[in-house]
Design brief:
Strand content: 15-25%
Structural class: alpha+beta
CATH superfamily of the largest domain: DNA primase, PRIM domain
Number of domains: 4
CATH architecture of the largest domain: Alpha-Beta Complex
Distance between the termini: 72 Å
Radius of gyration: 23 Å
Number of strands: 18
Largest sheet: 4 strands, antiparallel
Length: 405
């Protein structure tokens, strides 16, 4: 009988969590992973920057109670990106009130807070004194294969606005200008992201024994979901151990599919066996096997694909990441990072849309068709002057593809 491969892995991982691991030398944070592309920021003219800042300020003035500043703000690093500017980080606030006052004063494009706690959060990375970090996950619809992407994902030229289907060329064949990807969203891909987020929750609760109340699920404000795990067993894990957890939920650390299939073919017992991935795969196979005409190997592959969670491992492993602060606005979309209570009732096309419906006239150079609040807007071409609600104008302005008329 094959060793219960995932059971052994999980026991070793649980042992690592319980005893803690020696910390690796921290890697410098990669701001490029969370900052909008520099070209987009540079295109914002003074009028657009002032309008955007005022739109965000109005939300922060009336929505301060929705911002979730951690209970221990004095040990967290904060940062923000002003409209048209670069990341400002290594900030520290003594209280929630002090943090909120600065957010309202700056009304920036994006606001971030570390999942790590530090002795000296305002110092450079190597001098902060790392005290631990909550386990976090990032699920993005862009990374999950869905057929809808063919209808709403494309590339466009920043110079002449020629557009086409992905994959993106290195440069525009028409004018030689830079080609930029545009990733839209729809109910299909947003539902897929929600499903993968709930798979992560399932792994944490069922396989790692995390209390469901300790897992907070948020819509990111763009195309996916963030998970914050408030369980002290994970706080002192280093990058390697966090990487093992990311690999576990993704199913990428499993033995070769043919080895699992060979084990299942030799198995005399029926029904789910063991726990963790062993139970997930054997249970799936036994449920489908009787009326399945394909090979056991193909069935095992389906079992893994249908239950794995696609997560951004670079986020989970980064113990110095500054993560978008819950309740604040996304710098590209103007939607809020929103706590999800009931996943069945949460609507990512409606609930995070918190900006005003007040109309604004824009001169739009180019913008593909997009959906927000279950309404379609665009496509826009050749410097059209259009009137849009504030919440729909923001993504056009933040990409530098329009100006306030």
């Amino acid at each position: 009988m094959l060793r219960p491969w995932k059971d052994t892995f999980q026991e070793g991982l649980a042992s690592s969590i319980n005893r803690g691991l020696p910390l690796l030398r921290p890697k410098a944070p990669t701001d490029a992973l969370i900052c909008p592309p520099p070209g987009i920021r540079a295109k914002l003219n003074d009028g657009s920057k002032a309008w955007l800042r005022q739109a965000y300020k109005e939300y922060y003035f009336r929505g301060a109670d929705k911002i979730e500043v951690p209970d221990d703000p004095a040990s967290r690093e904060f940062g923000y990106i002003p409209f048209g500017g670069g990341m400002i980080r290594h900030l520290s606030f003594r209280s929630r009130g002090e943090a909120l006052a600065e957010i309202l004063k700056q009304s920036p494009s994006s606001v971030y807070c570390s999942n790590a706690r530090y002795e000296y959060p305002a110092r450079p990375i190597e001098e902060k004194g790392w005290l631990g970090a909550e386990l976090i996950f990032d699920i993005d619809a862009t990374d999950i294969p869905t057929p809808c992407k063919r209808s709403h994902d494309l590339w466009y030229c920043e110079k002449c606005h020629t557009s086409g289907k992905l994959p993106r060329p290195q440069k525009c064949a028409k004018c030689g200008g830079p080609a930029v990807e545009f990733h839209g969203t729809c109910e299909t891909c947003l539902d897929a992201a929600k499903e993968h987020a709930m798979r992560v929750v399932g792994f944490l609760v069922t396989d790692f024994g995390v209390d469901r109340e300790a897992v907070r699920l948020y819509f990111s404000g763009n195309r996916g979901y963030h998970l914050h795990v408030f369980d002290a067993r994970f706080d002192l894990l280093n990058q390697g151990a966090r990487g093992e957890i990311a690999e576990y939920v993704h199913g990428s650390s499993l033995p070769p599919i043919q080895s699992i299939a060979a084990y299942i073919r030799r198995r005399s017992s029926t029904g789910p066996q063991g726990f963790g991935w062993t139970k997930r795969i054997t249970g799936y196979v036994e449920t489908r096997r009787r009326d399945y005409s394909g090979t056991v190997q193909k069935l095992v592959s389906e079992a893994i694909t249908s239950q794995r969670a696609v997560v951004d491992a670079s986020v989970t492993t980064d113990i110095h990441r500054v993560f978008r602060l819950a309740g604040t606005l996304h710098g590209d979309t103007g939607m809020a990072k929103t706590r999800v209570g009931s996943t069945a009732d949460f609507d990512p096309q409606e609930d995070p849309v918190v900006l005003s419906t007040r109309p604004v006239k824009l001169t739009v150079e180019f913008y593909p068709r997009f959906r927000i609040k279950h309404r379609e807007f665009g496509p826009f071409f050749k410097s059209e002057t259009v009137e849009l609600p504030t919440y729909a104008a923001v993504p056009i302005l933040t990409r530098g593809l329009g100006e306030v008329a």
